[in-house]
Amino acid sequence: MLVLALDTATPAVTAGVVELTDAGPVERSVRVTLDARKHAELLMPGVLAACAEAGVALRDVDAVVTGTGPGPFTGLRVGMVTAAALGDALDVPVHGVCSLDAIAADALAAAPALPGRLLVVTDARRREVYWALYDGALRDGDGASRRVDGPHVEAPVALAARAAALGAVAAAGASAAAVGLPEREPASPSPAGLVAVAAVALRSGARPGPLEPLYLRRPDAVEPGARKRVSAG
Question: How many CB atoms lie within 10 A of CB 85?
Fold first, then answer.
């Protein structure tokens, strides 16, 4: 099964072609560009370059997997809308996965003997971070790990103060340094990590539900209230 994997939940604009084999996800190509302000300009060129490097056409793709955050509204929307449009045009299923889950899958695949829990921490802007907690001992055959808490948004100082109480022994993600634990790679999800999280659903052939973004914050824009009455003077 050939899967196109996308993520724009972090400053990394990620696209790749992954072959889901019996032994797990195998990356055929990866394109990652770091630019938090140009997700829209960079994603589709990255998709086309990844397909060219893998020697496949878009019509050869069997499914699309996209990170659903948590992440800033504008960047996250670019990846999810692109994934939905490609799925519709190619008539293939589109699976959404938590981007933090994919980072955890990558980090734990590189550290299979991690003796404890892993915090995944990414930048939420506004002097806050997104985070989720994973049990390193609980993972499936494709490398996906079990999330035991989160995702949440919180000030990094508050998270650092209780990281030990959460049982975390290491941290991964773009803001891992903020919690003062030993750091693990990667800073952003890889195509293989994204597919590892979706592997069970991909193998089952189940029809995915609608894509739901993980914003975790209320939108800044609010519906205007009723206009104030002006009394006649």
Answer: 13
pTM of the model: 0.91
Residues 6+ apart with CB under 8 A from 101: 132, 134, 144, 145, 147, 197
**pLDDT of the chain along its 233 residues, tens only?**
999 999 999 999 999 999 999 999 999 999 999 987 888 999 999 999 999 999 999 999 999 999 999 998 889 999 999 999 999 999 999 999 999 999 999 999 888 778 889 999 999 998 999 999 999 776 666 667 789 999 999 999 999 999 989 999 999 999 999 999 999 999 999 999 999 999 999 999 989 999 999 998 754 444 455 555 555 55
Place of tokens 């990620």: 14
